[in-house]
Specification:
- 26% of the residues lie in helices and 29% in strands.
- Residues 8-19, 188-199 and 204-235 have low confidence and may be disordered.
- The longest helix is centred in the first third of the chain and has 20 residues, at 2-21.
- A four-stranded antiparallel sheet has the order 1-2-3-4, covered by helices on one side.
- The protein is elongated, with a radius of gyration of 39 Å.
- By secondary structure, the chain is of the alpha+beta class.
- Among the domains are: 8-93, no CATH class; 99-173.
C-alpha cells in the first residue's frame, strides 16, 4: 500500500511540475504589453495590464488581457499564441477609451479613396492615443496628392461627442502655369534664349544684335580707320 501511495504521490508531483512548465508566463506578457504601449504613445501612461494566470501553451490559442487607464477606463487587448513555445502576438482594437492609430489610418485611407478616387498614404503619428471627444489631430498625407487645383497636405481629424471620427482635407493652392502663344501657334517663354529656340522651331529666323564694340579694341574688322589723304597718292 505504501508503495502504491508513493507512486501516486510521485505521479501527482510530476503532473504538477509538467503543468507549471506548460503555462505561459502571463506576468511577463503584462509587462511587455505595458512597456510597448507606452513607448509607442507619448501621452499614455498605463495604470496596469492584467492577463489571466492559468493559460497553457498551445499554438493558435487565444486569450484576452485588459489594460487600465486612470481615469479614462479600461480597454481590451487580444492575444494569440503563435506556437507551443510561448511566442505571442497581441493587438489593441479601437474603443471608446483608446484609438489604434494604424487602424485609424487604414480607415481614413479607404474613406479618402472613396471621396476623391485617389489613393493617399497617411501618417497620423503615435501608434495609440486616447479617444477623447472634442479632441482633434492631424494626419499628414505622404507624397503629392493633387485634387483639382489643390495639393492635399493633411487630414484634420476630429473626435465627436460619441467618439466617432470626422475629418476634412487641408490643401495648398497650386500656382497656375502661364504660357504665351505666338502667331505660329507655338509657346514662347519669357527668356530671349527660349524665345529664339521657339522661333527657330517655327521656321523663323532670329537676328541677334552684334555685341557692342566697347571693350573689344584690337579685334580685326570691328571698325574702319579713315587715313589722311597725301598728295600724289592714287588711293
Amino acid at each position: 500500500m505504501r508503495t502504491g501511495l508513493r507512486i501516486a504521490l510521485l505521479a501527482g508531483s510530476l503532473f504538477t511540475l509538467t503543468g507549471c512548465f506548460n503555462r505561459l508566463d502571463t506576468g511577463a506578457i503584462e509587462q511587455e504589453i505595458e512597456a510597448e504601449v507606452e513607448s509607442q504613445s507619448r501621452r499614455l501612461s498605463l495604470a496596469e495590464v492584467r492577463c489571466p494566470r492559468d493559460v497553457y501553451k498551445q499554438s493558435g490559442a487565444y486569450f484576452r488581457c485588459v489594460g487600465y487607464l486612470r481615469p479614462e477606463g479600461e480597454f481590451t487587448i487580444n492575444v494569440v499564441q503563435q506556437d507551443s513555445q510561448g511566442r505571442i502576438e497581441w493587438d489593441i482594437p479601437s474603443s471608446q477609451v483608446i484609438l489604434n492609430i494604424a487602424k485609424v489610418e487604414e480607415k481614413l485611407q479607404q474613406e479618402f479613396a472613396k471621396a476623391f478616387s485617389k489613393r493617399a498614404a497617411l501618417n497620423c503619428g503615435d501608434m495609440y492615443r486616447l479617444n477623447q471627444p472634442g479632441e482633434q489631430f492631424e494626419c499628414a498625407v505622404v507624397g503629392d496628392v493633387i485634387v483639382g487645383q489643390e495639393q492635399i497636405t493633411d487630414l484634420l481629424v476630429r473626435i465627436d461627442p460619441e467618439g466617432n471620427l470626422n475629418w476634412h482635407e487641408v490643401g495648398e493652392a497650386i500656382a497656375p502655369v502661364t504660357t504665351v502663344s505666338n502667331p505660329a501657334g507655338t509657346t514662347s517663354a519669357s527668356s530671349p534664349q527660349a524665345g529664339a529656340a521657339a522661333n527657330e522651331a517655327a521656321g523663323e529666323t532670329t537676328t541677334t544684335p552684334a555685341p557692342s564694340a566697347s571693350g573689344r579694341e584690337g579685334i580685326a574688322g570691328t571698325r574702319e580707320v579713315e587715313r589722311p589723304r597725301i598728295a600724289g597718292d592714287d588711293d
